[in-house]
């Protein structure tokens, strides 16, 4: 087999699991720069979102756009201190033998990756010692991490010639004039060229790209003549809690609506007494044998086949050498990104075959001005976008006069646009014809005004507590009573509305405000619970409002589960929390209110400034949730001192979270104003409590 170019593990994974064009772009610095040139010269446009490896129970991120992020890191001259650190990490990642692993590269991502790797080493070293005790052997381990790739290749080859070292960390291999390279996470040396491959992932869930990761390693070692006895994937155990051990998910508390007597179960035991939540500062040792789950089966399939068996079956039925030759060949084609279809090999897991297929690419496509209103702004269009981008003469919404016209059907003669999207298209075109001016009866769905009124009724049941949490997470649990990637709340803000005289422009005089932020590196949850309960009932029981409530309710549910002594007040808040986002995006019947400038998105960072741009985050040094999370994480991990926290970061952190809940007030106030303009009597009817 003679490959025209190197094919790294990450190249292979991106090609097989994502998109051949994505694989082409991140194959090398030269290809990356070529893609940037294509963008700047208006030959291509890109729409990339990369899913993160981190596995949260609740994923608040939508992924990230690597081309934009990396372009700045590699070309900008005004990088911040944090960005310079990210640039260094990116350059090191590009030179990695395994290829460029796409990552947003914040500090916590790097730290988590290192922490999982270190924990896995501890686990497999302990496992080796246990093996030696059981079998009365004296096997050793060897860590190649300190060596460069070329030196590591030679050392790996030499060490595998005898069986003195059983467990190898980061052993290196190359094949075909270094066109294929790999640094394995862990290799078990069983002697006589028999080995076991173990890949460690900082994830709690198995993903399809893990399959290709292991397949690449198996293939390369097979080509080198090693006999692979087993292939395993090591994941983080999502049911392991530090200090508590493994908890059966069937025993995890499920919450349901229940009657809670405020006077007897909340006011008397909690509010009338100066209750305190004991700290949770003691940290138990991590039980590595419970932190990790090691499996040799591919659990993405119903049958759950053995990795080794399915790899061997695929190799028997397909020409894998030819597969790699074809992949390697694409990287020489400078115009590959200009092809309308992504020609690529696709795995048929059921039949264990690899077929070559072509599909219209929805990631990289011929140039469009994405700042104009276009079909990419429409929700739930992803499966249809590829064909539209390449084969249709419409892209901009202004060119779609009648979305129900029969010409707007797909290759299967099905309507391209749903009824909801048709409404958004017509609304956007009306907006453009009106010189980008709107009226209340234009952006409010007048056919569902009753639904909006029903939602608004809750906001007139005072007090109304608008609340927002900030959280951090760790791959390896940092506190007792926590698991991997659990969202640990360390901060909240509450704006309380007591009557209908509230005004976000005069918030101090027309509303009440409370906030909290952890002030030590210990577990913030005990003090968080104590303060949050008191502040959430300061003006009596009420209605509790979050924006995208599933996140805050998930955090509350976990607090109830792990701190059951405070179940009643937290449960009361949990079951009385409503979602401000329901005015825009719901599970069904979306967009009761839609402004064309939302462009299909319902994040408060979009809806609030569109409805009223007078409140901005631009004056804040910390102006995004992920930045706030990262700052607290660095504080908790002892990256800066208590004095630095107090004098540099704390004020900015408080300002950001406070701004979030004030933005919620802005949204509510603007919704009420819209309805008042349509029919003032509707609001008066709600105030009187009439149906």
Report the count of strand segments.
19
Q: Which term fits the overall shape?
A: globular
Any idea what the CATH architecture of the largest domain is?
2-Layer Sandwich
Question: What portion of the residues fall into strands of 2 or more residues?
Answer: 5-15%
Instruction: Quickly count the helices.
Output: 24
Q: How far from one another are the termini?
A: 77 Å
Helix residue percentage: 40-55%
Q: What Rg do the Cα atoms give?
A: 28 Å
The CATH class of the largest domain turns out to be Alpha Beta
Low-confidence stretches at least 5 residues in length (pLDDT < 50)?
52-63
Could you please say which CATH topology of the largest domain applies here?
Nucleotidyltransferase, domain 5
The averaged pLDDT comes out at 89
Taken together, the total number of domains comes to: 4
Describe the strand arrangement of the main beta sheet, using strand numbers: 2-3-6-7-8-11
In terms of structural class, how would the helical and strand content be classed? alpha+beta
Biggest pleated sheet: 6 strands, mixed
């Amino acid at each position: 087999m003679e490959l025209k170019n190197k094919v790294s593990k990450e190249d292979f994974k991106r090609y097989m699991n994502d998109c051949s064009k994505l694989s082409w772009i991140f194959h090398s610095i030269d290809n990356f720069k070529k893609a940037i040139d294509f963008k700047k010269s208006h030959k291509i446009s890109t729409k990339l979102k990369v899913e993160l490896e981190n596995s949260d129970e609740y994923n608040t991120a939508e992924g990230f756009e690597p081309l934009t992020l990396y372009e700045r890191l590699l070309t900008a001259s005004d990088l911040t201190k944090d960005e310079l650190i990210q640039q260094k990490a990116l350059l090191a990642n590009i030179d990695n033998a395994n290829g460029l692993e796409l990552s947003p590269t914040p500090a916590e991502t790097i730290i988590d990756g290192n922490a999982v790797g270190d924990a896995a080493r501890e686990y497999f070293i302990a496992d080796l010692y246990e093996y030696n005790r059981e079998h009365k052997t004296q096997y050793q381990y060897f860590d190649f991490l300190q060596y460069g790739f070329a030196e590591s290749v030679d050392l790996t080859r030499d060490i595998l010639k005898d069986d003195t070292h059983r467990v190898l960390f980061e052993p290196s291999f190359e094949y075909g004039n270094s066109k294929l390279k790999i640094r394995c996470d862990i290799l078990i040396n069983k002697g006589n060229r028999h080995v076991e491959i173990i890949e460690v992932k900082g994830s709690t869930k198995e993903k399809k790209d893990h399959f290709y990761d292991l397949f690449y390693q198996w293939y390369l070692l097979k080509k080198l003549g090693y006999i692979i006895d087993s292939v395993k994937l090591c994941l983080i155990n999502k049911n392991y809690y530090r200090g508590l051990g493994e908890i059966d998910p069937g025993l995890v508390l499920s919450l349901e609506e229940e009657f809670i007597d405020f006077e007897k179960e909340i006011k008397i035991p909690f509010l009338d007494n100066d209750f305190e939540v004991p700290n949770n500062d003691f940290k138990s040792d991590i039980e590595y044998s419970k932190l990790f789950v090691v499996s040799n089966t591919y659990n993405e399939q119903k049958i759950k086949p053995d990795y080794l068996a399915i790899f061997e079956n695929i190799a028997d039925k397909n020409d894998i050498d030819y597969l790699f030759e074809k992949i390697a060949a694409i990287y020489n084609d400078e115009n590959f990104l200009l092809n309308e279809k992504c020609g690529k090999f696709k795995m048929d897991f059921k039949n264990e075959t690899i077929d070559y297929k072509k599909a219209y690419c929805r990631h990289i496509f011929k140039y469009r001005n994405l700042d104009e209103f276009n079909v990419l702004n429409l929700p739930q269009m992803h499966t249809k976008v590829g064909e539209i981008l390449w084969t249709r003469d419409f892209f901009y919404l202004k060119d779609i006069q009648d979305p129900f016209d029969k010409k707007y059907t797909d290759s299967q003669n099905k309507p391209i646009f749903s009824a909801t999207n048709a409404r958004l298209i017509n609304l956007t075109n009306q907006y453009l014809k009106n010189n980008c001016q709107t009226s209340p009866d234009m952006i409010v769905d007048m056919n569902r005004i009753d639904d909006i009124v029903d939602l608004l009724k809750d906001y007139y049941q005072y007090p109304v507590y608008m609340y927002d949490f900030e959280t951090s997470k760790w791959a390896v649990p940092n506190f007792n009573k926590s698991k991997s990637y659990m969202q640990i709340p360390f901060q909240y803000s509450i704006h309380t509305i007591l009557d209908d005289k509230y005004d976000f422009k005069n918030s101090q005089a027309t509303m009440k405000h409370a906030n909290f932020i952890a002030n030590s590196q210990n577990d913030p949850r005990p003090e968080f619970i104590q303060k949050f309960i008191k502040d959430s009932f300061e003006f009596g029981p009420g209605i509790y409002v979050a924006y995208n409530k599933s996140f805050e309710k998930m955090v509350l549910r976990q607090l109830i589960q792990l701190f059951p002594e405070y179940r009643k007040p937290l449960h009361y808040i949990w079951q009385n929390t409503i979602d401000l986002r329901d005015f825009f995006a719901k599970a069904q019947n979306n967009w009761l209110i839609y402004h064309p400038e939302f462009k299909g998105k319902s994040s408060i960072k979009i809806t609030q400034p569109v409805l009223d741009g007078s409140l901005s985050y631009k004056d804040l040094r910390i102006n995004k949730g992920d930045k706030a999370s990262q700052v607290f994480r660095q504080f908790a991990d002892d990256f800066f001192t208590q004095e630095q926290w107090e004098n540099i970061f704390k004020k900015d952190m408080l300002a950001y979270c406070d701004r979030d809940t004030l933005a919620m007030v802005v949204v509510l106030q603007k919704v009420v104003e819209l309805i008042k303009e349509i029919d003032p009597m509707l609001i008066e009817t709600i105030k009187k409590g009439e149906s």
